[in-house]
């Protein structure tokens, strides 16, 4: 779905009052019923991550971490069945998964001193049952399950969704009988930085030549698209020629302004494909 920048800003402003809970998606869908839940979740995740990056330094201050930890200990002792860490995270506007990480790290410092490793910390966040304190393990699991933007569960879901859309892209290409090399095949040939798909025979989409296709299972906003242009898309263009980027969950319409320079944006697999090789067309 293409969304004009003005409308995107309206959605982004609305997300400022939300926390990364399951309920926030319901609120977004009720407020913006014309947009899919996947698009709204992707937009919220982008905006929430920006918010966290702006404010994360104050939460990482030693005095802040100590305050969170001592408050957790006091409130968990007083009301062990309450979602203490979730409530603290929502109150201070910090991702529940990020707060859980700070608290577990502080717990390990107290318990293990300098003996614990980052790997130990990561393992406990991925599998809270490894945390020796059963009550803390329960609260960390609550944070992981209820955070829709950060944490090991979200990382797994995002990876799976990305893989799913890459498979979808390959399936669509095979349906059109288009010959291509995927990322794994390209790396096997020695390429280090590659798009998801290189077409062995180029195609034309809406009058523009396409040599490669990149799949993004996310919404394309100004910040993410600018980053992708600088770190990925222009290098693909330099090496392989003009290409197509599919933002499966939509993008800001005004970003599709590089077509004449060789980068085309779509929010779905194109239906009007013309092959530029021996075959005349695929539709």
Give a verbal description of the structure.
By secondary structure, this protein is of the alpha/beta class. It is built from eleven helices and eight strands. Strands 2, 3, 4, 5, 7 and 8 form a six-stranded mixed beta sheet that branches. A two-stranded parallel sheet has the order 1-6. Helix 11 (222-240) links the parallel strand 4 (208-216) and strand 5 (243-247). Helix 1 (5-15) crosses helix 3, helix 4 packs across helix 6 and helix 6 packs antiparallel against helix 8. The longest helix is centred in the middle third of the chain and has 24 residues, at 152-175. It is elongated, with a radius of gyration of 23 Å. The chain starts with a strand and ends in an 8-residue tail after the last strand.
Summed up, what is this model?
It is built from eleven helices and eight strands. It is of the alpha/beta class.
Oligomer: single chain
Query: What coarse outline follows from CA principal-axis ratios?
Result: elongated
N to C succession of SSEs: EHHHHHHHHHEHEEHEEEE
**Tally of individual helices:** 11
By DSSP, the count of extended strands is: 8
The biggest sheet, with number of strands, parallel, antiparallel or mixed sense and barrel status, is: 6 strands, mixed
Strand content: 5-15%
Return the average pLDDT rounded to an integer: 94
Distance between the termini: 21 Å
Structural category is alpha/beta
- Uncertain spans: 279-283
Share in helix: 55-70%
Q: Radius of gyration, rounded? A: 23 Å
